[in-house]
Write a structure and sequence with these properties.
Strand content: 15-25%
Oligomer: single chain
CATH class: Alpha Beta
Distance between the termini: 32 Å
Mean pLDDT: 92
Helix content: 40-55%
Number of domains: 1
Order of helices and strands: HEEHEHEHEEHH
Number of helices: 6
Amino acid sequence: MTAADRGFYEVAIAKHAAYVRVYGLATMNNSLCLRDFIEKALAVGRTFIIVDLAHCTGMDSTFMGLLAGAAMSEQNGKSPGVAAVNAGGPLLELLKSVGLTELIFVEPEPFNAPDFEFARLEEPSGEDARLALVRSAHEHLIKLSDHNEEVFGPLVAALEMEMRQRGIKA
């Protein structure tokens, strides 16, 4: 499997927004770097996150939970705006399936980001951090609907048990 098959992200920072381009699969295996980027962008005052899915071939619930968490976070008493652009077809259906379209702006029509200099994110290693990310992402999804609680609640419980056994702080 090539790096492109596994998926990766390119990012850019503008005055008020952070832009993310998703290439390939957006999954729990490559989302630590994205979580770190979004947290830093919000911490330094970016108020909008734009996620371009034009080159995304698929996404898992961890990635979607990460987007939900970003939209639910608060900086200076305000939640940032989160938008998924170029989110048509099956990707739009995935976002709808977990209720994310009720929380973030979704634009299925073609959208071109301004001409910024994008940099590729590198995924750090760390199974403990990955487990904590997967748990946190799914907790965000659970907040969106009772259906998500039924679907993801057992996963969160299993992850919490594994984290306790490993001595990982939640």
